[in-house]
UniProtKB/TrEMBL annotation:
Record organism: Lentzea atacamensis
Name recorded for this polypeptide: 3-oxoacyl-[acyl-carrier protein] reductase
Gene3D superfamilies: NAD(P)-binding Rossmann-like Domain
Record domain Ketoreductase: where: 4-182
PROSITE patterns recorded: ADH_SHORT
Assigned protein family: Belongs to the short-chain dehydrogenases/reductases (SDR) family.
Length: 250
């Protein structure tokens, strides 16, 4: 994989940052994309300091013009991107009767429109190279979660998107899979604790009691799975949704 170029969206922190660092450690050149420009620049600098190749770009993945320009720049600076991690995401949680249209649209635009635009732009390079890996970040919330009608629908939509792209792109040497994390300790889940007006520690401890392996997940848990799915060895794995959640719920 040393000659491969990966793009990771939502790479300024949390799962995206961990995946970017892991793919760089695996030998891939990595483009880190996020609205947080300083975050991705710092992440890219860390990879470069460790002997890797990386760039950080400020991109709104829901904006088609920005996406196409970013993918073109990645191809120019690092080489044709053949690995894509669609991780960018936001939360706008609320019960249905309180959820605004803007809350709905924002979540759909980042998660679904963003994955669509990024995949469409990157597949042009993948099909030309005859090799590709797309990994979409879904969630256990795709199975339903109170107060997340928008997020749950978007994450379930990503699973259907994943399976369809796997069918369409397989003959070009491109695999498409999804990772559905359970509770992962990130800034996003910390914000959930703040919104619930409880401590992050209490939220983590409470969640761990419901997880068979008796702990919450870390961003590195997702990075390990992504590393496998983009590898040469995962070439016969496609159209799958892998739940990385510490075990099934009762």
């Amino acid at each position: 994989m040393a000659d491969r170029v990966a793009i990771v969206t939502g790479a300024a922190r949390g799962i995206g940052a961990a995946v970017a660092q892991r793919l760089a450690a695996d030998g891939l050149a990595v483009a880190l994309l996020d609205l947080d420009e300083q975050g991705v620049l710092d992440g890219a600098d860390k990879i470069v300091a460790g002997g890797g190749r990386a760039i950080g770009l400020k991109v709104d993945v829901s904006d088609e013009e920005q996406v196409n320009a970013a993918v073109a720049k990645v191809a120019e600076k690092l080489g044709p991107p053949t690995v894509l991690i669609n991780n960018a995401g936001v939360l706008r949680d609320n019960l249905l009767f309180k959820m605004t249209t803007e809350d709905w649209d924002t979540v759909m635009n980042v998660h679904l429109r963003g994955a669509f635009l990024m995949s469409k732009a990157v597949q042009a390079h993948q099909t030309k190279e005859g090799f590709g890996r797309i990994v979409n970040l879904s969630s256990t919330s795709a199975l339903g979660n109170r107060g997340q009608a928008n997020y749950s629908a978007a994450k379930a939509g990503l699973q259907g998107f994943t399976k369809t792209l796997a069918i369409e792109l397989g003959k070009f040497g491109v695999t498409v899979n999804a990772i559905a994390p359970g509770f992962i300790a990130t800034e996003m889940t910390k914000a959930t604790a703040e919104r619930m007006k409880i401590s992050f520690e209490d939220l983590i401890n409470g969640a761990a009691q419901t997880i068979p392996v008796a702990r919450v997940g870390q961003p590195e848990d997702i990075a390990h799975t992504a590393s496998f799915l983009v590898s040469e060895g995962a070439g016969f794995v496609s159209g799958q949704v892998i739940y990385v959640a510490g075990g099934p719920k009762d």
